[in-house]
Amino acid sequence: MTKTILIVDDTKLNLRILIDILSREGYAVFACTDGLKALELANRINPDVILLDIVMPELDGFEVCKLLKEKDESKDIPIIMVTSETKSQNIKKALELGAFDYIRKPIDEVEVSARVNSALRFKTHQDKLKELAMKDGLTELYNHRVLIELFVKEYEKQLELKKGICFAMLDIDFYKKINDNFGHTSGDMVLREISSIIKSSVRFCDIVGRYGGEEFGIVFPDIELGEALRLCEMIRKSIEEHEFNVRNKSIRVTISIGICYKSAKEHIKYNEMIEAADKALYKAKNSGRNKVEIGMHKVI
After folding, report:
1. Which residue intervals define the domain Response regulatory in the entry (predicted)?
2. What is the model's pTM?
3. Which residues are catalytic?
4. Of 46, 128, 182, 190, most Cβ neighbours within 10 A?
C-alpha cells in the first residue's frame, strides 16, 4: 500500500522541493501552506508521516504539532519538523511537544529520504504493536477492552446522529464438552472457525470482539431491529450448518444469542444494553439453546 505524506510549509519553493523529492520516492503526497489547513487535512487523509515547518503565520509548527498530538486520531503520526532555525532550544521544544525528528533547511534530498524512511519504519512497528494490543491472540477479533471502548464510541455517535444501535452477546453451546471430548486444541480451532463465520457474516461497519472465554460481542450501529435480528439469525444458522473437522471427525456446533436494541427515541445506557443482552443470552441458554432472544429493558 502506498504511504501518504503530508507536507506543511508556507514557502512555496520549499514545498515544491519536498513534493518533488517524495513523489519520486513513490509516496502519495499532500501539501498545504498553513496550520489550520494542515489540521483539516491530517484529519481527512490520516497521513503516515507529516513534514511540518516551524515558522508559519497565524498557527506555527509548534502549535500545530501540539494540537495533532492531543487528538486520538493523529497522536501517533510521526511528525518531522522542517526548520531553518539553528537554535537548539527550538529543536528541543519540538521534540518535547512530540515531534519524531527534524530536518534543517536548506533541504538535502538524501537527508529527507532517510528521515522519512526512518519515520515510516517506526510507524509500521508502532502500528503492529497497537494491533497486537487491540486484538485477541487466538481469534484475531477485538479483545474485551477494545470491544467495549468501541461500543461506547459508537453508542455516543449513534445517540448524536439519532440512529438505532444494537448489542449482541453470543455464546457457544456446550463448549466445555468440546474441550472435554477432543481437547483444548480442538476447542481453540472451533473458536477460530466460529470467529471467522461471525466476522464474514456482519456488515463492514459492525464491530466484532471476543467478550471472554467462548463468548462474543457484536455492535451493530445505525440499524433497525429487524435487520439486527436477521443478521443474528443468519450467524446462528451458518454456525449450525457448518461442519467442524475435529480430529478427523465431523461435528456440529450451535450458538445462542441475546440481543439488546435501542431505537433513536429510547433512553438506555450502553452498560444497561450489555446487561440486557446478557440476560437475553441466559434466557436463550435456558430455553433450549441454538436460538436468538431479544433482551427487555426499561424505557425511560
Report:
1. 4-120
2. 0.71
3. 214
4. 190
